[in-house]
Amino acid sequence: xxxxxxxxxxxxxxxxxxxxxxxxxxxxxxxxxxxxxxxxxxxxxxxxxxxxxxxxxxxxxxxxxxxxxxxxxxxxxxxxxxxxxxxxxxxxxxxxxxxxxxxxxxxxxxxxxxxxxxxxxxxxxxxxxxxxxxxxxxxxxxxxxxxxxxxxxxxxxxxxxxxxxxxxxxxxxxxxxxxxxxxxxxxxxxxxxxxxxxxxxxxxxxxxxxxxxxxxxxxxxxxxxxxxxxxxxxxxxxxxxxxxxxxxxxxxxxxxxxxxxxxxxxxxxxxxxxxxxxxxxxxxxxxxxxxxxxxxxxxxxxxxxxxxxxxxxxxxxxxxxxxxxxxxxxxxx
Length: 333
Description:
The protein is mostly helical.
């Protein structure tokens, strides 16, 4: 039985955090046995706004790979590969840029938001602006039909499908499949400081390798409802960072709904909900942190996983590139 193909990945700009886990890693784990899975260590994409610090990008290849293995990604059931060592991706990106306008790239909501967050103004690195075409190359090179992403990444999948349709129209046949985004029901996880997005660069994230003290400190610092001054005061659940995290990670949904009702009515203190969240996150992160430490003691194994996966991915992506080149009717030697 042929399995559907899943492709996803992460920029190698730092260790992964709970936002990655809630937004995509958990979906990857759920689909590992039912999908042919490719995980891309996106070092080339990381350079689009870190070209001044390539060493940061290089050293975090191993950090992200360690996080993949630590959360339970089985390299015998998936292919972990290095983006910069797959030349077909860059070649497809160049071809795809002829099928999308600058105006369309600038209209992409994900790119617009990230440009504003980084304060680029008009001084946007060309590689960053062209990222939607590069991601389209990443996805289509593996002929992926399933892409687990956070909600903020969904517009990139739409643009990938636009490019695929244009390639197929020129080729006169379906060379490339369209992809479907899998978005978690919990939505985007905010930073512990209440800002809209948890991020490595923003300093508002809980790493998957966080120590018990780091987890507890982050939970204590979380925003709740500023109007909830006394235990007996009614409190707001919506927009309350602690409850947002409980929605994402508390497995006991019935008890959680009871806590929400008590909080809204009055009679439940912030300390109690923070204590519950701290216990849940400690239980979630501890085994990940321990497995990560074990894999970190086996650097040769981690490197071998990346090398073997990249070789396997090179065969797949080169075959797709040839199909695209043939479909477009380019000169063949």
